[in-house]
C-alpha cells in the first residue's frame, strides 16, 4: 500500500497496490510496519461498519475526548462518500483546518484520521458501506462533536440541501461555543 500525505498534519491517504491476475487482485489494506515507517503508531482495538441506505446521509463531525481519543482508518466498501476531517489539536500547525476526500469502492482509497481530529462523511450514492478501524474502544462518556456546518471551518460539502442527519448530529455545538480547543496537543 502507498501512503500519500494530505494538507493536514499527520493525516494520510492509503492507496492500494493490487497484484492482479485473471481471478482478480490481492492487496494489503493495513500494515503496522508501513505505518510505523511513516511515524504512525496504530493499534487496532475495534473495527466498525456503517451502512447508509440513502444518498446525502451526513454523519459527523465526531471525535472522542481525551483520554479516549482515537486514530481511525476509514474505507468505503460499497458506494461512495465524501470523507471530511478537521484538525482540532491546538498545538498542530494545521489546527482548525479541514480536508475532504472522496472514497469509493472503485478507487479503494482509505483515510488515516489521527487522534484529535473530528471526522464525518456525506454519502454520494445509495447503499454506501463504510468500514473503519479504530485505536480506542468506543467510550460514550467521552463522545463529542462539532457541527457539520460550523462557520469556523467553512467545510465545502458537495451537497447541502436535502441532507439526512440525525438529531444528535444536528445538535452539536458550534466550535466557538463548545470547549474551543478540545485537544491541547497532538495525540491527546
UniProtKB/TrEMBL annotation:
Keywords: Isomerase. CDD domains: cupin_RmlC. NCBIfam families: rmlC. One of its GO terms (molecular function) is dTDP-4-dehydrorhamnose 3,5-epimerase activity. This is dTDP-4-dehydrorhamnose 3,5-epimerase. Pathway: Carbohydrate biosynthesis; dTDP-L-rhamnose biosynthesis. It catalyses: dTDP-4-dehydro-6-deoxy-alpha-D-glucose = dTDP-4-dehydro-beta-L-rhamnose. Homodimer. The record marks 138 as: Participates in a stacking interaction with the thymidine ring of dTDP-4-oxo-6-deoxyglucose. The active site is at 62 (proton acceptor), 132 (proton donor). One of its GO terms (cellular component) is cytosol. Pfam families: dTDP_sugar_isom. The gene is rfbC. The keyword Isomerase applies. It comes from Paenibacillus herberti. GO terms for biological process: dTDP-rhamnose biosynthetic process; polysaccharide biosynthetic process. Belongs to the dTDP-4-dehydrorhamnose 3,5-epimerase family. PANTHER family: DTDP-6-DEOXY-D-GLUCOSE-3,5 EPIMERASE, THYMIDINE DIPHOSPHO-4-KETO-RHAMNOSE 3,5-EPIMERASE. Catalyzes the epimerization of the C3' and C5'positions of dTDP-6-deoxy-D-xylo-4-hexulose, forming dTDP-6-deoxy-L-lyxo-4-hexulose. It comes from the Bacteria. Its EC number is 5.1.3.13.
Amino acid at each position: 500500500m502507498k501512503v500519500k500525505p494530505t494538507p493536514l498534519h499527520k493525516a494520510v491517504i492509503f492507496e492500494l497496490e493490487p497484484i492482479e491476475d485473471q481471478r482478480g487482485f490481492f492487496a494489503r489494506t493495513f500494515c503496522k510496519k508501513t505505518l510505523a515507517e511513516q511515524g504512525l503508531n496504530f493499534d487496532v482495538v475495534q473495527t466498525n461498519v456503517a451502512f447508509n441506505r440513502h444518498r446525502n446521509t451526513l454523519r459527523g463531525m465526531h471525535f472522542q475526548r481525551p483520554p479516549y481519543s482515537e486514530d481511525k482508518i476509514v474505507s468505503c466498501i460499497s458506494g461512495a462518500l465524501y470523507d471530511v476531517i478537521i484538525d482540532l489539536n491546538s498545538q498542530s500547525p494545521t489546527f482548525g483546518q479541514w480536508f475532504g476526500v472522496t472514497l469509493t469502492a472503485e478507487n479503494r482509497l482509505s483515510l488515516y484520521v489521527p487522534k484529535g481530529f473530528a471526522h464525518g462523511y456525506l454519502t454520494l450514492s445509495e447503499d454506501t458501506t463504510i468500514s473503519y478501524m479504530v485505536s480506542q474502544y468506543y467510550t460514550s462518556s467521552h463522545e463529542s462533536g462539532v457541527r457539520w456546518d460550523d462557520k469556523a471551518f467553512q467545510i465545502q460539502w458537495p451537497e447541502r440541501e436535502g441532507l439526512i442527519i440525525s438529531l444528535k448530529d444536528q445538535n452539536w455545538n458550534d466550535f466557538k461555543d463548545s470547549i474551543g480547543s478540545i485537544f491541547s496537543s497532538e495525540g491527546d
